[in-house]
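To: structure desk
From: M.T.
Subject: fold request, one chain
Message: Could you run this one when you get a chance? Sequence is below, nothing fancy, just the single chain.
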Amino acid sequence: MKWKAEPITHNKQARIALHFEYSKDANERVRQLTGVKWSHTLKVWHVPDNDVYRAQFKLPVRNITAQHIATEKEDIIRLTETEQQHLLRFENLLRIKKYSENTLRAYRNEFMVFLKIASGRIDIDLLTTEKLSAYLLYLIEKREYSESRLNMAVSVLKFYYEKVSHKPRLHFDLPRPRKRHTLPKVIDKQQVIKLLNAPDNTKHKTMLMCAYAAGLRVSEVAALKVIHIDSKRMTIRIEQSKGKKDRYVMLSQKLLDQLRLYFEEYKPKEYLFEGQYGAAISTRTIQEVFTAAKQKAGIKQKVGIHSLRHSFATHLHESGIDIKYIGDLLGHKDVKTTSIYTHVSKREIGKIKSPLDE
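Reply: Done. C-alpha cells follow.
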C-alpha cells in the first residue's frame, strides 16, 4: 500500500495527514493506528505528529517548538533509538500473541507513557522492583490514575519485563490496586422504549435496537456483518468478540422486522452498519447516536451505550431467565461475572419488605 504522509496543523494540534488510495483493507489498517482520527473538514485520516510516526512514515525528525509543547501533551518528549526498539519489541510480541487491536492500542499507549517518563533518565532494563513501585505511586499521586487504569499499567510492566525482557516473574512481583466494586447502571424498561423510539433515522434506531435486543457490546454492534443475521434459526452470530470467542444470541422478532425495514432502505453489502467507504461503522459514531437518543428521550441518568447491555441482562433476570443462560448470551466465561445482575434486579430485591412497611 502506497502512503503519502504530510505534517499538518489541525484544530491547533500538530498532526500527520495520511493520504492513500482507498481500499477496504487499507482503510481498516489505518483505523488500527494509535491516536488516529478522521477529519470531516479535510476528508483525511490523521495521527499525532510524533517521532514514532515520523520514523514510520519516513518523515524528517521534527524540531520541538513552543506550539508542540502547548498542544501535544504526552507526545512532546522524543524517544531515543533504544526506547523506540523497546517499543517495537513490545508491540511485535503483542501482535505475535494475537492480542486484540483494542488491547494492543491500550497497552501500547500505556507503555509509551512509561517510556516518556523514563526517557533520558535510565535504561528501563536496569530498573528494580522498588523503582517500578515508585513509578506506580507517581501515577497514583501525580496523574491520579483510577484503579482500572493502574491495573493496566501493572499489566503492561509485567508483560514487558516477563515476556519481552524475560526477567524472572517473582523479581517483578508488582502490587495491584484493589478493584472498586460498582454495580451496573440499568435503564428502566419504559425509558428503554422511549430511547429506542427517539431516533428518526432508521439506521440509528436499528443500531440501538441491536445493542439492547441481543445484549451486545458497542464493538460487537459495529462488527456485525449481514451474514451474521440468520432469520431461519432466529439467531445472530457474534464472531471473535472479547476474549476471542464466538457465540450465538437470539434474534428478536421485533428486531428482525426492524432489520427488514433497514435493509430495504440502506441495502448494506458486507457490514450490517456501514461507515466511511463501506467499512464497519466506528464505535464512536454509535456512542454519539446513543447520546443523542438519550437526550431526545429525556433520560437524565449518567449512562453510556453499555447500559443497554446491562439493561438487557437485568431485564432478562427479572423475567425469570436463569443467570447461567444470561451469562452464555453475554459471552461470560464465569457465572460469577454475570451474578452481579442479581444485585440490581427487582426480581429478588422487590420481594423484600422494608421494616418501614410493618
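Reply (cont.): DSSP finds 16 helices and seven strands in the chain. Let me know if you need anything else for the meeting.
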